Amino acid sequence: MLAAAQHAAHAGARIAAAPELAAITASEVYPGVGAATREQFADYARRAGTTGHHPVGTCRMSDDDAAVVDAQLAVRGVAGLRVADASVMTRLISGNTNAAAIMIGERAAEFIRASSR
Ligand SMILES: Cc1cc2nc3c(=O)[nH]c(=O)nc-3n(C[C@H](O)[C@H](O)[C@H](O)COP(=O)(O)OP(=O)(O)OC[C@H]3O[C@@H](n4cnc5c(N)ncnc54)[C@H](O)[C@@H]3O)c2cc1C
Q: Coil, strand or helix: which one is 69?
């Protein structure tokens, strides 16, 4: 994640410095004129990076050992506990997350109903 943010910040600075854009821009604001090294851009990414409006993935659903929940949203190794929110998404979806979070909640209700029959 940090590497991607650092690359993005660096790429943005390079694009803005290209002759075609340099002619219509004044000077670099962030991270600031003179920033050139990978470490400077990584430092900027650490300081300025935020989760925005769509944080996901802190309870990732998968079948590998590092996953928190399985395909039925059950917490691996803990009986009777499920997670039903955006945290189970394995990665950020390309659109906004609210509809997908609602769908996850509806699937959780189906799983719980089915398991209590
Ligand atoms: C400013 C903003 C704008 C957004 N705009 C859009 C949009 O236009 N379209 C869209 O699709 N998505 C949008 N989203 C994203 C959308 O709101 C989320 O995808 C969705 O709310 C995720 O649902 P969730 O259930 O995972 O988490 P949340 O809705 O955050 O629900 C988590 C709940 O858990 C509670 N909680 C947290 N910790 C604890 C605890 N320890 N004990 C008990 N309760 C706890 C919280 O109080 C909260 O009620 C926006 C998000 C933000 C912040």
A: strand
Q: Judge whether 31 and 45 are in contact, CB under 8 Å.
A: no
Tell which atom from ligand 1 comes closest to the C-alpha of 86.
Answer: 26
> What does the alpha-carbon distance between residue 44 and residue 6 come to, in Å, rounded to a whole number?
8
| Ligand 1 pocket by Cβ (under 6 Å) | 53-54, 85-86, 96-99, 101
Query: pTM of whole model > 0.70?
Result: yes
For residue 80, pLDDT over 90 is answered with yes
| DSSP letter (8 states) at residue 87 | G
Letter string b/e over residues 48-64, b meaning 16 or more CB atoms within 10 A of that residue's CB: eeeeeeeebeebbbeee
